[in-house]
């Protein structure tokens, strides 16, 4: 939009400037031609009268005195050419003939390839031929005029750029505010001032943020209420199932109740993951943070190793980040047999943590889909294995809520690598 507005403004102003310059030049040209014709008419009449009264031997000495920038006199008949073709040359010839009188027998010819260069032939009273060669000159242009035109164009460019910047700055602010909106519906409120259109857009955006936040709060409240209300009947059903005699039906009932409890807990966890940004960010040593997490797994005999460390400090939300990494490591151990954790720096100085495994990986067409809620890969992440299809969705939403990003990619040589990037 900025480029289009700038192009429209600059093109319009430049065309207006060019039209003004063209009209001024045409007016100046018309005036100059009128003055020139009137001056030539009178000067030529005087010059011819002087040459007519001078002796033939003295006339050549007076030619240089009577010469002007756009015409000169030649003693003799001059060159022969074609009849005059331009209206201005015919008009000038007629004016000179009228001024000097019919006794001088005035007529004109074109004598060069340029129609505007022509000769006017006269005959003095003593019969001597005199030729007036006319070479019209262009309108003189001052040396400072091109510089002024360049400065005017530069001024148009600067004014157009400033105008476009002022017009598009609210849109840029709005775009930045939209990009900053997180799943929790938390973002800075836009100032509701400026032009009416900008104020209305800011008002609508702020109202949208409030609706999103209210909707998410209602969703969390509904899920928490459902979870709380379901706990009691599930507990009663479990007690009744446990009171039954041992058998296949009893085991099936207990398994179904366990799956229901797991689904309820995962649903509430997914709803709460949108509010991961509520945690205050703190400065930590990322190497120590990752080492602590890996050592916790190693203490319980899990095949988790640390393959890369990073220097310096990072500002993160540790509880949310730890929950994301735990989810990814659990998946790597569960479906790949082992997990490799590494920390590094991005090109922009952000924190990057990868969790890799040597499992079966994920088809390229499903790398994005597995991040969606309740999506399961039947071959490995089915209900039979305890997966509810919310683990990666929770991790993804947590990363969005704390301003980070989670991506999945298949690993060279087999396996999957999950990359967590924080600014």
UniProtKB/TrEMBL annotation:
The reaction(s) this protein catalyses: ATP + protein L-histidine = ADP + protein N-phospho-L-histidine
Pfam families for this protein: HAMP (PF00672), HATPase_c (PF02518)
Domain of life of the organism encoding this protein: Bacteria
Enzyme class name: transferase
A GO term for molecular function: kinase activity
Transmembrane segments: 144-164
Subcellular localization: Cell inner membrane
Protein's membrane topology: Multi-pass membrane protein
The protein's name: histidine kinase
């Amino acid at each position: 939009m900025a480029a289009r507005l700038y192009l429209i403004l600059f093109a319009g102003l430049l065309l207006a400037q060019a039209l003004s310059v063209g009209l001024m030049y045409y007016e100046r040209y018309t005036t100059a031609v009128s003055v020139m014709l009137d001056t030539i008419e009178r000067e030529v009449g005087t010059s011819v009268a002087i040459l007519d009264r001078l002796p033939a031997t003295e006339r050549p000495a007076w030619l240089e005195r009577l010469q002007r920038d756009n015409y000169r006199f030649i003693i003799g008949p001059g060159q022969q050419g074609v009849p005059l073709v331009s209206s201005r040359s015919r008009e000038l010839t007629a004016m000179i003939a009228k001024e000097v009188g019919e006794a001088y027998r005035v007529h004109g010819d074109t004598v060069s390839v340029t129609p505007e260069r022509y000769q006017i032939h006269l005959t003095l009273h003593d019969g001597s031929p005199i030729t007036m060669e006319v070479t019209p000159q262009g309108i003189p242009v001052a040396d400072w005029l091109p510089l002024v035109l360049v400065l005017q164009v530069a001024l148009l460019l600067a004014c157009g750029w400033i105008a476009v910047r002022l017009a598009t700055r609210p849109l840029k602010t709005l775009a930045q505010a939209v990009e900053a909106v997180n799943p929790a519906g938390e973002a800075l409120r836009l100032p509701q001032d400026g032009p009416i259109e900008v104020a209305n857009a800011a008002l609508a955006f702020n109202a949208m943020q409030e609706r999103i936040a209210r909707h998410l709060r209602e969703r969390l409240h509904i899920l928490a209420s459902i979870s709380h209300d379901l706990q009691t009947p599930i507990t009663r059903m479990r007690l009744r199932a446990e009171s039954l005699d041992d058998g296949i039906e009893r085991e099936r009932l207990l398994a179904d109740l366990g799956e229901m409890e797991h689904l309820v807990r995962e649903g509430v966890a997914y709803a709460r993951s949108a509010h991961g940004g509520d945690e205050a960010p703190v400065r930590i040593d990322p190497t120590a943070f990752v080492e602590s997490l890996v050592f916790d797994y190693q203490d319980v005999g899990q095949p988790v190793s640390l393959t890369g460390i990073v220097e310096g400090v990072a500002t993160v939300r540790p509880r949310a980040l730890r929950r994301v990494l735990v989810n990814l490591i659990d998946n790597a151990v569960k479906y790949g047999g082992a997990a490799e954790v590494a920390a590094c720096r991005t090109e922009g100085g952000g924190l990057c943590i990868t969790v890799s495994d040597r499992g079966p990986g994920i088809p390229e067409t499903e790398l994005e889909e597995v991040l969606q809620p309740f999506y399961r890969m039947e071959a490995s992440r089915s209900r039979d294995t305890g997966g509810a299809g919310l683990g990666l969705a929770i991790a993804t939403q947590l990363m969005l809520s704390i301003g980070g990003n989670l991506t999945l990619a298949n690993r060279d040589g087999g396996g999957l690598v999950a990359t967590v990037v924080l600014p």
